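G.,

No rush on this.
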Amino acid sequence: MGGWVVEKKRLTKDPVCLMYVDEDKPIATSTYKGKTYYFCSHMCKDRFDKESDKEKFIRKLDESGK
């Protein structure tokens, strides 16, 4: 008998838009202070990379409950 196969995904939030992103298949990534951040789009990654105060995105991410 066959059964359902469920693929487990490691989800994390994009720090810019707070959308869930599959860590194994992100559109883009950036590393900041030794931590990798995952993005749903190149637009979010570019916004993060260009922001001089990246901590504001990280605070928003922490407040959202990751």
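When you get to it, here's the other one too:
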Amino acid sequence: MFASVREKVKNNVVVRSFLKDSVTYTLLQLINKAVPFFLLPFVLHNVSKEDYGIYALFLATELSLQPFLSLNTEGALNRHFFDKDIDYTKYFSSVLLMILFNVVAIFFFGYIFSAGISLLTGLTAKYVILVVLSSGMNILISIGLVLFRNIKKVFLYAIYLLANSVSLFGLMIVLTYYYHNDYGLILSRFIVAFIFSIAALAIVFKLGYFRLVLQIKYWRKALAYSLPTMLHTISAFVFSASDKFLINKYIGASEVGVYSAFLQLASVVGVLGTAFNTAWVPWLFEHLNKREAEVDRLIVKMSYLLKLAFLVVTLVAIMALYVAVDFFFPASYVQYKYLIVMFVLGYCFQGWYFVVAPYIYFSEKTIFVSVISIFVAIFNLGFNLVFIPVWGIKGAAYSMCLSWLLLYVFNFLMANKVHEMPWVLNDR
């Protein structure tokens, strides 16, 4: 069986090209996501816990704003690139202009209501203004990368993404060392986002995909696709950002800094899970589509092995990161390394979620993914509201781990309901 698959791959130019591009994009994303990980020890030694906490709140706010600024249209731009019945340049230009108009409108909203937003986010009024612009600029960068990938400009994609990562790495080291506070971190992020968002617009214009063209029909087409996904996206941001805002509210920015530092450290397991998902989904879809009993048994065995692999990686990561904290983190952080266990376990459950959720996508019953995500986001918010006042950042870590476990369990149950598989393996 595997010999025949290898032979097909060997003789199929399209498959070989797909595999080559997939590996390339996965490696580039891993490098990009590794930048914050390798910067972490340097940053923690040069800024206070409170300053790092403010930076973490800035990132959480930036992330939370993105679905409101872009209206989730990045997915529409990706999906409709392959439609033959639209003028994609006019479509892309119309959607991009809509996003720019939206960023300007929300910028003025943020400027007028900066005091109220400061109370909600824990950021100063100055940072409220910067975070809207930074979020908007990072959306432009993301849209540029989507286009480069769709038009198969692998080299351009690689150069642009790596230049962005290297620039952020270098500038953050320089400005953090110079300022020794949150301003250096935020300013470096803002400057890099500004430069590369302008570069994205210039490159997209030069490639012929951006013109000053606006057609309302394309707004309607993009929004018809993107708006139904807004609740799912917002629930994801509630999941990933509410903990930091609530820690700041109940305890303070210093504790946000400690919490975010260990969450960032443990995210190395999450990065591996995301990279695995890129390879797992196409393999799974290909084999599920065969609809053969023996193949289904093979898929189930693979699923169990992958879950076991994530568990092994989790145990190794916990031991390795415990040692890493002693060597690379400031002494004042060492007492909090118990957080590693909950965070790494949480990312393990995220990896298990990546194993089972694609079964639901294969069945095309994606509404269940959104419903479960919203349900778990509400639970996550509730857990944080109850746990943080009682147990502090330890409570937030419990909430993160428990929420990923719930997300995995509910998706596993739903996956088996919409696409039954022989999860109980009987030896033959």
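Confidence is low (pLDDT under 50) at residues 1-15. Residues 37-229 form one domain.

Enjoy the weekend,
O.
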